[in-house]
Amino acid sequence: MSDASRRPGAGLDTSVPNIARMNNYFLGGKDNFAADRRAAEEVLAIAPEVREMTHEAQAFLGRITRYLVEEGMTQFVVIGSGLPNRRNVHQVAQEIVPDTRVVYVSNDPVVLSHARATLATNPHTGVVEGDVMHPGELLTDPELLRLIDLDLPLAVLILSALQFIPDEDDPHKSVAVLRDAVPVGSHFAIGHVVFDTRPEARGPVVEIFQRVLGRGEDASRRSEQVLRFFDGLDLVDPGLVYLRHWRPDNPLTAQGRDRTWTMGGVARKSTG
Questions:
Q1: pTM confidence score
Q2: 10: confidence class by pLDDT, cuts 50, 70, 90
Q3: If we measure between CA atoms, which residue out of 212, 12, 6 comes closest to residue 110?
Q4: pLDDT tens digits for 228-258?
Q5: What class of enzyme is it (predicted)?
């Protein structure tokens, strides 16, 4: 919705940019406000390819969801989910296996409000307030446990949250706690912006997001640092790669120079 077509909810400060709404703007959506658009345009002025990156991330989400369902995953926990879009995890998965259960996790009140309204009539989906940095609380949440059986393999998707969490908060430890808590046969899918091919964009882009988040730490990483999130897991082919190279529907789209710089991978927990 545009500023003119929607009324902000009580307590919502529309003068402060919000990452979920910025991402919505990058995707061409209308669930954003002037402050979100200004911050998003600052990013695009430095790296116009960010718009393409958000679309690649949506396509990657669809491919990994289909892959995971084909691998037998009928339970999904999506951590750090953004605003609902046209092709969400539950829609892709439930087209293949209708009773697939999906829980979306976010600590963003904007996302929580939209997701609960959108998913209210779907009995196989749930929305939980939480984040990757509090795995113990997440794994004992009553709403999550209503839908997810933690004694059975599940898929954990963390596709955008980690790139905003600095090393000072030790996100690698939090992912390891989740890894150790789920049963053998579970899968993890992780996505993360990297600056290997765009080192000159790192400083100015990080500065914008520091301002949006109100934090001073630098959470940016290179590919080898992202690879550590998969410790203790077995990466499936083709490993940790730029998103367009992860099992593309059309191999021709994966050719050529990498103009975008988000990487992702899927891994299986093979041992306890």
A1: 0.93
A2: very low
A3: 12
A4: 999 999 999 999 999 999 999 988 766 655 6
A5: transferase
Pairing of strands 241-242, 262-268: antiparallel
Domain ranges across the chain: 50-197+221-268
The 3-state secondary structure of the chain reads: CCCCCCCCCCCCCCCCCCHHHHHHHHCCCCCCCHHHHHHHHHHHHHCCCHHHHHHHHHHHHHHHHHHHHHCCCCEEEEECCCCCCCCCHHHHHHHHCCCCEEEEEECCHHHHHHHHHHHCCCCCEEEEECCCCCHHHHHCCHHHHHHCCCCCCCEEEECCCHHHCCHHHCHHHHHHHHHHHCCCCCEEEEEEECCCCCHHHHHHHHHHHHHHHCCCCCCCCCHHHHHHHHCCCEECCCCCEEHHHCCCCCHHHHCCCCCCCEEEEEEECCCC
Sign of the C-alpha dihedral computed for residues 28, 116, 176 and 172 taken in this order: positive
